[in-house]
Write a structure and sequence with these properties.
The chain is 78% helix and 0% strand. The protein has 277 residues and is mainly α. The chain has one domain. Residues 10-245 form the Cation/H+ exchanger transmembrane domain.
Length: 277
């Protein structure tokens, strides 16, 4: 869960202040890479633990790799490629929206069909379907066309994200958040140390400041929290309560702190043209 990164707070600063430089150019690829690795790691570990506790350890690794990771990526890639054939050509805003939403629904429908009719269980990872879908079609259309597609889709994306966050936040008990206490502090500090030190020792450029822009993680982490809590409730409800309160509290605090820290990181790196003047 700590691996996941939501770059939106830092990107809001990039758009507002028109930042440019090594930190700005490295931020988006790193955030996407973090999420890809986080999704693979989370669903692999969650699948193994669940299968082990259910007494089905012998097939957990193969099932996790093929069904939870490889199959969703294959579905997303194929549908993403098909969508690029239609989205390459310039179209009106309405047509672009209808085409993109249609192919997203097709990708999701394929996953639902496989879950219900083939597997008979909720095993397909829809987050990987979406990531593979968008990664493929985004790399098969021109940059100009991709900008048009994203401009047309942004209103739908904003509403969709609002629905997802409300849906994730509605079941949360604020008593869990207030009671997380020391676990939240340890989680925030250790995650921040990991992000900063990993970027510092792993990067050739933007070593000092990249890690500070990778702190926010609310959206993906809340999705992971819901899945982890559902899995843990079957055999370890106490840990489920701790995780739910800790991650929710950490997500809220990070959303407040991350924008301030990210802005300072861009200032210290000298990538804010407005402040240079």
């Amino acid at each position: 869960m700590a691996l996941a990164t939501v770059p939106s707070p830092a990107l809001s600063i990039v758009r507002e202040f028109k930042t440019d430089g090594p930190v700005t150019k490295t931020l988006i690829p790193m955030a996407v890479l973090d999420d890809v690795i986080a999704i693979i790691m989370f669903f692999s570990i969650n699948g193994i633990i669940t299968a082990t506790k259910n007494g089905n350890q012998s097939t957990s690794l193969g099932a996790t790799l093929s069904i939870m990771i490889l199959l969703p990526m294959a579905i997303g890639s194929v549908v993403g490629y098909l969508s690029s054939l239609f989205l390459k050509k310039e179209r009106s805003k309405i047509q672009t929206q209808l085409l993109l939403v249609s192919f997203i629904l097709i990708a999701g429908s394929v996953g639902i069909y496989i879950n219900q009719q083939v597997l008979g269980a909720e095993m397909i990872n829809f987050m990987l379907i979406g990531m593979a879908f968008s990664a493929v079609f985004a790399n098969l259309v021109s940059k100009e066309r991709l900008h048009q597609i994203m401009s047309a889709f942004n209103p739908i994306l904003g509403i969709s994200l609002l629905i997802v966050i409300v849906n994730l936040g509605a079941p949360l008990d604020y008593h869990l958040i207030l009671g997380a206490g020391v676990f939240t502090l340890i989680y925030i500090l250790s995650r921040a140390f990991g992000k900063y030190s990993g970027a510092y020792f792993g990067a050739k450029t933007a070593q000092k400041y990249l890690g500070l822009t990778l702190l926010p993680h609310s959206g993906v982490s809340l999705v992971f929290t819901g899945i982890a809590v559902s899995s843990l409730n079957m055999f370890d409800p106490k840990s489920a309560v701790i995780i739910q309160g800790t991650i929710a509290a950490a997500a809220i605090l990070n959303e407040i702190i991350a924008v301030i820290v990210a802005k300072k990181a861009f200032e210290w790196s000298g990538e804010m043209p407005r402040l240079k003047k």
